[in-house]
Design goal:
The protein is of the alpha/beta class. It has a single domain, classed as Maf protein, CATH 3.90.950. 33% of the residues lie in helices and 24% in strands. The protein has six helices and seven strands; from the N terminus they run βαβαββαββαβαα. Strands 1, 2, 3, 4, 5, 6 and 7 form a seven-stranded mixed beta sheet that branches. The longest helix has 18 residues. It is elongated, with a radius of gyration of 17 Å.
Length: 193
C-alpha cells in the first residue's frame, strides 16, 4: 500500500512520522495557488488540497495520495504565504493582538479512486507584538514561506495567547482527521516497507 505525500513540506512529513506513517515518496504538486474572486478561505484551502491530490493521482493511481493546504485568514481575508521579510512584517502587524483562523484542508485518494476530504479550522489568538518582537522574528527568518508569515512550532509559539482547535492542523496537517481518513479508505497503519 504505497503512500505518497503530495507536499514538499518537512512539517507535514514530520507530522506523519509522529503518527507512525512514513510516505514512500514525496511529490510536490505544482499548481496555481491564486485565490478565485470572492473565494472564502475554507473553500480556497479545500480546492487547493483537492487540486494537489488530483494532480499527483493522475500518474500514481496505485498509491494512496495525501495532499493538504493551510490558509491563515481573518474573516474573508486570506493572508499570503510570506515570501519576503516585508510580507512577514505585514502579516504579523495585521495579526498582532488579534484572533485569526488557521484552516487546513486535506484530501486523500486511495488506489480505487475513493476520496476523503476534510477541512479543519483552528482559532489562534496572538498577543500584541512589540517592535522588538517583530524585529527578532524577522531576523529568525522563520516566517518566510509560511502561511500568514509565521510558524507556530517555532519562535512564534511564544506569541500565542490562546489556541482553540487542532495544534497539528496549525502546523500543517490535522493528524486526527488524516489518520482516520486513511483508515476509512483502507490504509493499514503500522505497515513496514
Amino acid at each position: 500500500m504505497p503512500l505518497i505525500l503530495a507536499s514538499a513540506s518537512i512539517r507535514r512529513k514530520d507530522l506523519l512520522a509522529q503518527a507512525g506513517i512514513a510516505p514512500d515518496r514525496i511529490i510536490s504538486a505544482d499548481i496555481d495557488e491564486t485565490p478565485l474572486k470572492r473565494e472564502l478561505p475554507a473553500d480556497y484551502a479545500s480546492r487547493l488540497a483537492r487540486e494537489k491530490a488530483d494532480k499527483v493521482y493522475l500518474d500514481n493511481k496505485t498509491d494512496f495520495i495525501i495532499a493538504a493546504d493551510t490558509v491563515v485568514a481573518r474573516g474573508r481575508t486570506i493572508f499570503p504565504k510570506a515570501e519576503t521579510e516585508k510580507q512577514v512584517q505585514e502579516c504579523l502587524s495585521a495579526l498582532s493582538g488579534r484572533a485569526h483562523d488557521v484552516i487546513t484542508a486535506i484530501c486523500i485518494i486511495n488506489p480505487e479512486g475513493k476520496i476523503s476530504s476534510r477541512t479543519v479550522s483552528t482559532k489562534v489568538t496572538f498577543k500584541r507584538f512589540s517592535q522588538q518582537e517583530i524585529d527578532m522574528y524577522l531576523q529568525s527568518g522563520e516566517g518566510i514561506g509560511k502561511a500568514g508569515g509565521y510558524a507556530i512550532q517555532g519562535l512564534a509559539g511564544c506569541f500565542v495567547k490562546r489556541i482553540n482547535g487542532s495544534y497539528s492542523s496549525v502546523v500543517g496537517l490535522p493528524l486526527y482527521e488524516t489518520v482516520n481518513s486513511l483508515i476509512g479508505l483502507g490504509y493499514i497503519l503500522g505497515q513496514t516497507k
